[in-house]
Amino acid sequence: MLTRRYTPYLFLIPACIILGAFIFYPMLNAIYLSLTDYNMVTEENFVGAANYKELFGSDYFWKTLVNTFLYLIVVVPSLVFLPIFMAILVNQPLKGIGIFRSAYYIPVVTSMVVVGIIWKWVYADQGILNYMLQELNIINGPVHWLTSTSTAIYAVMAVTVWKGLGYYMVIYLAGLQSIPADLYEAATVDGASKWKQIFHITIPMLYPSIVLVSIMSSISAMKVFEEIYVMTAGGPLNSTKTIVFYIYEEAFDNLNMGLASAAGVVLFLITLVLSIINIRVMNKRESSMM
After folding, report:
1. Model confidence, pTM
2. Cα 135 to Cα 141: distance, rounded to the nearest angstrom
3. What pLDDT is stored for residue 195 in this prediction?
């Protein structure tokens, strides 16, 4: 009986070892390093909250934090709602619809480095985007998409959204296919239009998927780095630098691991709070619908 009782815990040991080695230990070590002046060269010394004081007293850090929240505000709603309508479109019983599903998913499996290089060509002053807009007489001259402080971060955001649409579309597509067809048939009999069916049946039934997508896209937006590094390298004038870019610079350019770890702890706490808020807000909405 004793062996049978503890057998399930034996199966958990490998997973616990992996989680401890690659998640919990690095996380605790980062918290410890945030309280030191470790720089990868000399032995670390305990400095207490000095790194956090320097962090919150830095205008540069606050600039990256503002950029990160701007990214969050613009990208997350786009990745939460646009894929719903994409999923509805590709959920239609049409001939060859699998081709469209695959086409929408291709950006997801494409390397972000490749995507960033391609979009740098698209956004170039003599690139295809400026050419098309000028041919359509929408603009008179080329727009400096990636070299202007007013447009650079939004241009990178568009790439993030474009690449992520297919991934979240698949999540919603799985949710759509689990909705009973009887609900739509009953709504059609009652005279409900397609739009009313979407807003009163589809979206409420997709709430679990919406919660998942909200959390995942929020975390992705908070840790955005690759597209910024490839497309703008944080420029112009730091207008596209986010908190993860700040961590990268402090850790690997300035070798200031203590300050980088402190910024990482702040990022973790912000992400944790946003995830909790997302779950609670969605749970309240779901319970109010019942």
Report:
1. 0.86
2. 10
3. 87
